[in-house]
Amino acid sequence: MKRTVAKKGYTAKDIRAVSDNPEWTKNDFAKAKPFNEVFPAMRKGRGPNKAPTKTSVTLRLSPAVLEHFKAAGPGWQSRIDKALVGIVKRKAG
């Protein structure tokens, strides 16, 4: 019985044979335009934040605090923020 061996990956010959995406020339690069010029209506990034915006920080927390907030599932960072905002409001008022 003849066994067939599965082909593993592409060979250099396979790559050279691809004609639907030819290698760019210097002339192609010279004519290229930035993405946002070609597609000006496409949204870039996440867009404006909901007010008020938050500031990204690095914060070291004890494992017990982290376990407590993560135990309730997704949204644990927002729950920590809500708890801290509550403490700040109590101290200020």
How many whole angstroms does the radius of gyration measure? Answer: 27 Å
Q: What's the β-strand tally?
A: 0
- Which structural class matches the secondary elements? mainly alpha
What assembly state would you assign to the polypeptide chains in this entry? single chain
Any key phrases for this structure?
93 residues, mainly alpha, 5 helices, 44% helix, elongated
What does this 3D model show about the protein?
It is a single chain. The chain is built from 5 helices and no strands. It has helices at residues 12-17, 26-31, 35-38, 63-70, 76-92. It is elongated and about 75 Å long. The mean pLDDT is 85.
Task: Sum this structure up briefly.
The protein has 93 residues and is mainly α. It is 44% helix and 0% strand.
Write the SSE topology.
Blueprint: H1 12-17, H2 26-31, H3 35-38, H4 63-70, H5 76-92
